[in-house]
Design brief:
With 237 residues, the chain is α/β, with parallel strands linked by helices. The chain folds into two domains: 3-108, Cobalt-precorrin-4 Transmethylase, domain 1 (3-Layer(aba) Sandwich); 114-219, Methyltransferase, Cobalt-precorrin-4 Transmethylase, Domain 2 (2-Layer Sandwich), CATH 3.30.950. It has helices at residues 19-27, 36-45, 60-72, 93-101, 115-122, 141-148, 164-175, 199-208; strands spanning 3-6, 30-33, 52-54, 77-80, 105-108, 129-133, 154-158, 180-185, 193-198, 215-219. Helix 3 packs parallel to helix 4 (93-101) and helix 7 (164-175) runs antiparallel to helix 8. It catalyses: cytidine(1402) in 16S rRNA + S-adenosyl-L-methionine = 2'-O-methylcytidine(1402) in 16S rRNA + S-adenosyl-L-homocysteine + H(+).
């Protein structure tokens, strides 16, 4: 029976590629890649000669029907993104949903993703957390911030380097300057950096040192204030 494989790829360090991922990519009939040029370098490194087909946010709505037909016809297909696990702030959801709706088996391999090591590295509570990915650019942004301002769980966001300073300034507006955060930069790469502190402290750091590379921001949730216990004796007593 044909199958769609969701295959994570390294977010930086090529040693994070799993043996199983390499085997699957060699065995399938077709690899769907977000950017065939970027993925071509990865496949060449691991001597994978499987044919690639471009599958990204700009064409995935148009290609899903054809891909479902190919899967139903008996082909095995693997989906990869430029880095990390497909469908996590990358293309993949539409095709996965279509497979489920059409009775095509889907198997997601465990592997690299940026937000898990960022969460663990942060030192912030990780028993309960919410993954936000990229915040809206304009429409709906304020509404999202107002909701997140009341969020008590640890929050994880993806932020592009050229928007980091503006985003940290917005954090001060909506979360307060003393909210604990951790900015994780270039995870698994040579210049990996984890900057921890209050929003104000981290903003000051990056005002002096321009942020570069892939960035994950982990934000502490709103502190839960406990109401004082009421005395079992009334004031009159």
């Amino acid at each position: 029976m044909s199958k769609l494989y969701i295959v994570p790829t390294p977010i930086g360090n090529l040693e994070d590629m799993t043996f199983r991922a390499i085997r699957i990519l060699k065995e399938v009939d077709l690899i769907l890649a977000e950017d065939t040029r970027t993925s071509g370098k990865l496949l060449k490194h691991f001597e994978i000669g499987t044919h690639m087909y471009s599958h990204h946010m700009h064409n995935e709505h148009k290609t899903v029907e054809n891909l479902i037909s190919r899967l139903k016809a008996g082909e095995n297909i693997a989906l990869i993104s430029d880095a990390g696990t497909p469908a996590i702030s990358d293309p993949g959801f539409l095709l996965t949903r279509a497979c489920v709706e059409n009775g095509v088996e889907v198997e997601c391999l465990p592997g690299a993703t940026a937000f898990v090591p960022a969460l663990v590295n942060s030192g912030l509570p990780n028993d309960k957390f919410v993954f936000e990915g990229f915040l809206p650019d304009k429409k709906g942004k304020q509404t999202r911030y107002l909701a997140l301002a009341e969020e008590t769980r640890t929050m994880i966001l993806y932020v592009s380097p050229h928007k980091l300073l503006k985003t940290l300034a917005e954090f001060i507006t909506y979360f307060g300057e003393d909210r604990p955060i951790c900015v994780c930069r270039e995870l698994s790469k040579l210049h990996e950096e984890n900057v921890r502190g209050t929003v104000r402290e981290v903003l000051t750091h990056f005002e002096k040192i321009a942020p570069r590379g892939e960035i994950v921001v982990v934000v502490g949730g709103k502190p839960i204030t406990k109401e004082p216990k009421k005395s079992k004796f009334s004031a009159e007593e």
